[in-house]
Amino acid sequence: MHQRARLTGPRATLCGIGLGFAMLTAALTGSSAFAEGNRSPLIMEGKTNLPQRVLVRTTDSGRDGPDGTAVEPVAPLQQLFVYDRKDGWVEVGPDSDGSRTFWLPDASVIDWKQNIVAALDVAPGLGRTLFFKDVDAAYEVIESEEPAEDAEALRAEAEAAEASGTPSDTILALGPREAIDQRVNLHVMPILSAEEAIFESGTFVNILNVAVASAQNTTQNAAPGAAAGEIGGGAPADFKAAVVFVVDTTKSMGPYIDATRATMTGVYDQLDAAGLSDKVTFGLVGYRDSLKGAPALEWPAKTFVTLEDGRSADGFLNGIAQMTETQVSSKGFREDSFTGIEMALSQMQWDGYAARFIVLVTDAGPRDADDELSGTGMSSQSLNRLIQEQLGGYIAVLHLKTPSGAKNEDHARAESRYTELTSFPNLPPLYFPVENGDPAAYGAATARLASVIITQIGGAAAKVPSQGAAPETEPDDPLAAAVGAAMQRTALQYLGAREGTRAPDVFEAVVVDRDFDRQGMKPISVRLLINKAQLSDLSEALNIIVDKAETNVLDPDKFFTQVLGAAADMSRRPDDVAGREDETLAEAVSISELLDGLPYKSRVMTITEDDWVRMSISEQQALVNDLHDKLERYQRYNGATDLWVNYLGTEGAGNLLYPMLLDDLP
Question: Is residue 490 part of a domain?
Fold first, then answer.
């Protein structure tokens, strides 16, 4: 057995980041981090500006003093600022200005030094998450020669304890069998501390000490004895699927439009034969390219069949009959496929459909975020994130590898972008090349994709698998295997939403962020909880950096000075901002303490003035493009109202939170 290495430093410990956004507000919105009141919270040890905060353990009432009269109800996992500590009591308040405070017993709260949380990512093939009693118990499994077998034995022991009501000595709880729909029932697992370990195989794993509870505690997990994840031998009556095809309609795409029409005729016949016409619908969007590059293209993207129209064969076929390829050449070989995808994402009425798929049909690579003819200003990674977070669905790409694409040396780049676009956690990419761009092969692939969805919805094989069961695979048909796995995961999430699945009712426990058997898969994702004001402040900071970088392309020596000047102009404490030297970009806009404590390494915000001056113009532009891409994401997150969750169930826009993945940070 390997000697245990308890790591320290930023790779091992998620040290306190607190309300780094409060300091961002101080620099950008013209206020002190704790202004507007007479008191300031206590400061975290080792920090200069970040306030102490606690999380409430259980439902309780705040008192007007130690051992005093109840004056303020508090909810589990509510976040509070700390103003004083005395004789086993802590004075806390929901606001940073001390305008409203009360007292709670020390035992009712726990210190929270960061605003990052862990989220459960249930998927077929992953065992139920083990919530260990302590770190040592987790290490015993990680460092064993057979971690998968040891974990399975503990899982069986815990399931037996779950059924009998007798506590397990090692496992405090098991994760839910089904996926948790974050938009319906946000579960909150604040990360209290963490360290890094290594499997015998050499794979790194994070061990997370988390606080676990359900914010809305009105429903219970599925009964322990229930068939794990199965829905009565088939999909439930209200489990429906929507598929929107986004089809390239530029020059030379006529044969593929014809193939789509012929294939979909057979698909609707299959739906009718299976009695599933009311369970699956299809939409259709066509795209061309930016009119700035070729105005004669007429339109960049257009909806031909809505999801309502596509409920019948006649509706779909009437719509596709209007779709024709253009006779006008676009500018260059690349095309703006992302504009077509965004139209499908934002303009289709997806409500009421549990399984949501976009299928891109294209023979060309997309226009990148920095392309002047890009209609979205988004990268493939950003668009993928919106499909995951905003749509709650998947995108597949049928890439027609035509001789023309080979001649233009587009195949490798297109495959790279579309693989990134179609990559989802714990699933194979939904990228499927069609060699030589054969229309018949494309039609067959489209038919298989639709058939997999139909079979999963209503056929005899439509059982929703247990979480621990590996998805059925078809080694000779990667398309069917990948789409089938995505459908199975969707069904798990649907079942979780229907049953009101929530995180187990435990407060402190230890979890690991990799599966013990399939160590390349992660059942845990790490997210940052932010509110609307904080997202706005972060956007403002990035806008300052982007604006000053673009203004000083030919004179990089002035860049940092102007960034500091802009921050100082917006602050009531300009000396605190403009007087600093030898700092990073993050420090220049007052978000360094936020980023320093995260298990995330920014490649942009750690740049110093000397680093910037030494960089070439192309290197500087690449970093600015990355910030532009993040700003596009923030804009869309802000506008997606259904993604913001009032996890405490109380009034006020400040309680609306969005669990943003760490990769979305600059």
Answer: no
Cβ 348 vs Cβ 242: under 8 Å: yes
Write the CB contacts of 241 (distance below 8 Å, at least 6 apart in sequence).
279, 280, 281, 353, 354, 355, 356, 357, 453, 456, 457, 487
Residue type at position 59: T
Q: pLDDT (tens digit, 9 = 90+) per residue, 248-269? A: 998 888 999 999 999 999 999 8
What is the per-residue pLDDT across 625-634, written as a single tens digit (0 to 9) for each? 888 888 888 8
For residues 488 and 471, is the Cβ–Cβ distance under 8 A?
yes
Global model pTM greater than 0.70:
no
- Give the chain's mean pLDDT: 75
Question: What does the pLDDT look like over 365-393, one tens digit per residue?
Answer: 999 988 889 999 899 999 998 898 888 88
Helix-, strand-, coil-residue percentages of the chain, each rounded to 5: 35, 20, 45
Percent of the chain having pLDDT more than 70? 72
Output the 3-class SS for 480-501.
HHHHHHHHHHHHHHHHHHHHCC
In a domain, 326, yes or no: yes
Ramachandran angles phi, psi of 139, nearest 5°: -60, -35
Handedness of CA 274, 276, 280, 281 (dihedral sign): positive
540 & 510 share domain: no
**Integer Cα distance of 27 and 51 in angstroms:** 16
Res 495 pLDDT > 60: no
pLDDT tens string 75-111: 766 778 899 999 899 999 988 788 889 999 988 888 8
CATH value at residue 349:
3.40.50.410
Biggest CA-to-CA distance, the chain: 81
| Residues 6+ positions from 278 with CB-CB distance below 8 Å | 240, 311
Which pair of structure tokens corresponds to residue 198? 């290594």
Radius of gyration of the chain (CA): 27
CATH of the domain at 75: 2.30.30.40
- Per-residue confidence (pLDDT) for residue 529, from 0 to 100: 74
Element at 117 (helix H, strand E): strand 116-120
What range does the domain containing 561 cover? Answer: 532-664
State the DSSP H helix or E strand holding residue 633, giving kind and residue range, or none if neither.
Answer: helix 617-639
Residue 177 falls inside a structural domain: yes
DSSP letters for 314-328: HHHHHHHTT----SS
- 608: how many CB neighbours lie within 10 A of its CB? 15
